[in-house]
Structures are given as structure tokens and as C-alpha cells.
Amino acid sequence: MERTNQVIIDRAVRIRKQLAELEEQRAQYGADVPKELWDELVELSRELDREEGLAKDASRGKSQKVNQTRKEIIETLNQYNQWREQMRQVEDLFLVHLVRPGYRLRQAVLQREYLEREYQRLRRNINIEHYTSLEELTGEIQDVLKYGDAAYDASDEEIDEEVDVEKSIFEIVEELDIDQLVDVLEQEAVVREFKRVVLPEIHPDTSNSSPETFNSVYESFKQRDYLLMQAYIVQYRGEVTPDENEDPIVVLEQIDHYQDEYIKLKAHLDHRLEKLNQELTPLDEKDPAVIKEKMRSQQIEIDHRIHKEAEKILELRQKIEDLAVYYLEREG
Question: What is the DSSP annotation of 112-129?
């Protein structure tokens, strides 16, 4: 709180205490109140009116500063969301062109290596007379082939789940300073305030917000991104306007509290935005079309290697199946 405002509040509180004491004295005199006491009551009342007037003026001036800070918070939040969407688009391209194909290449290599080991093991067992019948060998051959098909196959959803285990650049940026921003009790308070202030303003059942707005804002709630949740609370709380009917001292204290809160929040948002900007800067320095083309080129190379691995896997499967013939030739 600014020193000037604190002085106004302290003086008003002191005068109110003095007035309360004089009112108790006046009550003792009934209708015969001494003139000196009346004069002191009148003078203190005038002083209180002056202090409350100063408080109202300070509240109006302070509310303008608070609303300007709120405006800057909303602008920063919008800029952050735009950059975050840009980063998400790059990550989606990376996922489609490199991560998923790369994962499938890795699975193909693992399957080929597994079949190579199993081929050598089965052939070795045949050579040392391990199997007592053709049925025993063919049963184990089928088990090997089934396991090879099942263990090294994966859908896009399964790949994405495994990839999500490792933090991306964006996720690291998302989590910066969150633990330092609010403790557990403050987090619970943020969640309650978000539900009270923000959700009714964005939910399709209680507002006219677009589905895009709902999804964007609600994402911060699902991820428990307390910094963004606080920013949305400020945005949907609306502008701060002094209530002329409320106690001016209470109003001034509340507006001072908002200003302190908004200034801190703006600083944290700026820090988050700067970190995200550092991640995006290398992308901005390059032509997006060149980046996409490089990703596609790398995907072609990965697909080529996957094709070669697939050919080797087919050859190994055939060699493993032919072990039954090898077994009969040895026995014959």
C-alpha cells in the first residue's frame, strides 16, 4: 500500500475511535450536552468527512491504475496464448512428422532384433536336440511370431501417451515458477475463485462464450496452471470501480490490495512470456516453410528405414517358420 493512502486510513481510524469515545461521553449527559463536547464532536466529524473524502478521491485515482494494470495483464495473457498456440502447432508438426514415425522405426528395429535372437535360439535348440516333437517346435514358433507382432505394435494414441511421459519444451515453460508463485492454501483459493468468477462467464450453459474460448480458458483449469488461472480471474472479474455507498476506508484498502496483487501477477506473466519467447525465438529466425520441409524430409528418411526394417522382419518370420522344415530334415 502506498504511504499516502496508509496515512489517510490511519487518520480516519484514529478519528473514528475518538468520535466513538465522545459519543459515549455525550450519552452520559442526555439532553444537556456541554457546548465544548458538541463543538469537539462537530470538529471531529468534519475532520472525518475530510479524511473519507480524501479516501474516496484516492480510491478513484487508484482504481484507474488498477484497471490499467488489469488491461496490461489481459494483453499479456492474450499474447501468451497466441505464442502458446504457435508453439503447439510446431509441436504437432514435430509429433506427426518425426515423433510418431521415429517411434515406429524404433519398434521395428526392436522387433527385428527380437526375431533375430529368437531365430538363433530356436535353431540352436534344434541342433542340440532340445525338442521332442515337431508339435513342440511349431508351438514355440507360433508363440514367437505372435509375441513379435503384438509386443512391438502401437497406435497413435499409445505413442502419444508414451511420448507425453517426457516433458516437452512447452511443458517445461508451462511449469516455470508455479511452485514459487503460490503455496497449497493459495492454490485452493485460486481454484475456488476461478470456479466462482471465471467458469460462469465461459461455460456454455451460463454464458454466450464461444467453444473456442471455453476450451482455451478451461485448459488452464484442467492443467491446474495457477498463474494463468489467476490471470483469467483478473480478466473476468472486470474493472475495479469504487462503490460510493461503501465505507471509503474499506474501499481504499481493497483497491490497494488489488493493485499489489495485479502488479505481482503482471510481473510473473511477463516472466512466463519471456521464457516462452526464448523458446520461440529460434523458430522466428527461420522460415516456417523451411522448418516444415525439413521435418517432411526427415520423415521420408525415417519411412524409408521403416520399410527396410519391415522387409527384414518378413524375411526373419519366413526363416523362423522354415525352422520346422529344418527340424524334419535333421530328423529324416
Answer: HHHHHHHHHHHHHHHHTT
CA–CA dist 157, 321 (Å, integer): 32
The yes-or-no verdict on residue 262 having pLDDT over 80 is yes
Which ranges of the chain does DSSP label H, i.e. alpha helix? Answer: 3-29, 35-94, 100-127, 134-151, 156-164, 169-174, 178-181, 184-193, 199-202, 211-222, 226-237, 248-284, 288-321, 323-331
C-alpha cell of residue 186: 493459495
Beta-carbon count within 10 A of 87 CB: 19
User: How far is 326 from 137, CA to CA, in rounded Å?
Assistant: 11
pLDDT tens-digit readout, 31-77: 777 878 778 888 888 888 888 888 888 888 888 888 888 888 888 88
Distance of alpha carbon 258 from alpha carbon 75, whole angstroms: 18
C-alpha grid cell for residue 196?
Answer: 466462482
Q: What is the mean pLDDT of residues 132-159?
A: 81
Q: Which three cell numbers stand for residue 192?
A: 475456488
Question: ∠ CA(43), CA(44), CA(49), 5° rounding?
Answer: 100
- Residue 1 clears pLDDT 60, i.e. is over it: no
Euclidean distance between CA atoms 199 and 109, whole angstroms: 48
Burial of 207 per CB tally in 10 Å (0-12, 13-18, 19+): middle
DSSP string covering 198-249: IHHHH-TTTS---HHHHHHHHHHHHTT-HHHHHHHHHHHH------TTS-HH
- Summarize the chain as % helix, strand, coil (round to 5): 85, 0, 15
Confirm if 200 and 207 have CB atoms less than 8 A apart: yes
CA–CA separation, 108 and 306 (whole Å): 7
Q: Measuring CA to CA, how many Å separate 39 from each of 22, 191, 297? A: 11, 53, 91
Q: What is the pLDDT of residues 127-140, one digit of tens each?
A: 888 888 899 999 99
pTM over the 0.90 mark: no
